[in-house]
Design goal:
Layout: H1 6-17, H2 21-24, E1 33-35, E2 38-42, E3 45-47, H3 49-55, H4 58-64, H5 68-76, H6 82-93, H7 101-115, H8 120-131, H9 141-158, H10 163-171, H11 174-180, H12 184-198, H13 204-215, H14 223-226
Antiparallel strand pairs: 1-2, 2-3
Helix pairs in contact: 1-4, 5-6, 7-9, 8-9, 9-10, 9-12, 12-13
Length: about 230
């Protein structure tokens, strides 16, 4: 697949690192087995649980990239066949923040400012509370799961987690979400409900997330239709 352009990647960094904790919290033909976390069956029925795990936090990533249409336009540059979409979104959603000096600094600042996280231990403590829904702001499960995934990605960029550690933590959430929700539509509706209970103020930020929660699974060449939750 084509690599995400530097300009497009900078939209994510600028968009996400410029917002408050509210925003941050803020597959191939034939039976070819598993590769890079992907279990492939046929081009019409692709399985990629690794990507699907990161898709639990995809509403944050799409918002940070500039919205649904901007994200999809970038993904579609690689083609619109199912396996091409999966390849593209693996590049967009799996650890979107990298361990560069700039991104590590931004990630550390966000985690410290909004989560009181400044080490691996404190990050894991927050993740455990989100996973078990024991945060004061734990209004709905989907709201917690999405924030959990986003924080793992920030923790990776900050250097608190290795890639393997981050993937393991993310993978633990998918079975829970699949048990709690039948579809992505149910999941994102509950995310929006949780975020509203956290802050019901009708800000532009809230309007953007509310709109994305109802549209993120819709349209042609949609990754959430390509990889259903269940």
């Amino acid at each position: 697949m084509k690599k995400t352009t530097n300009n497009f990647k900078n939209i994510l960094i600028a968009g996400l690192f410029a917002v408050s904790c509210g925003t941050f919290l803020a597959s191939c033909g034939g039976n070819e087995g598993k590769a890079d976390g992907k279990e492939t069956t046929s081009d019409s029925k692709i399985q990629d649980d690794e990507l699907k795990s990161f898709m639990l936090g995809g509403i944050y990533f799409e918002n940070g990239y500039g919205g649904k249409s901007t994200t999809e336009d970038e993904a579609n540059k690689n083609g619109t066949k199912p396996k091409e979409l999966v390849e593209a979104y693996r590049g967009l959603f799996i650890f979107p923040f990298k361990q560069t000096a700039q991104e590590a600094s931004g990630a550390k600042s966000m985690l410290n400012s909004y989560w009181d996280v400044n080490s691996k231990d404190s990050l894991v403590s927050v993740l455990n509370k989100l996973k078990s829904h024991k945060m004061e702001s734990s209004h709905t499960k989907a709201w917690d799961y999405a924030r959990y995934i986003n924080n793992v990605c920030l923790g990776y960029a900050a250097g608190y987690l290795t890639e393997d550690e981050g993937k393991k933590l993310v993978a633990e959430i998918l079975p829970l979400a699949k048990a709690d929700y039948k579809t992505w539509d149910e999941y994102f509706a509950d995310f929006a409900k949780g975020r509203t209970l956290w802050n019901a103020e009708e800000s532009e930020d809230k309007k953007a997330f509310d709109a994305l929660a109802t549209t993120i699974t819709k349209g042609d060449n949609n990754i959430y239709q390509t990889l259903p939750l269940n």
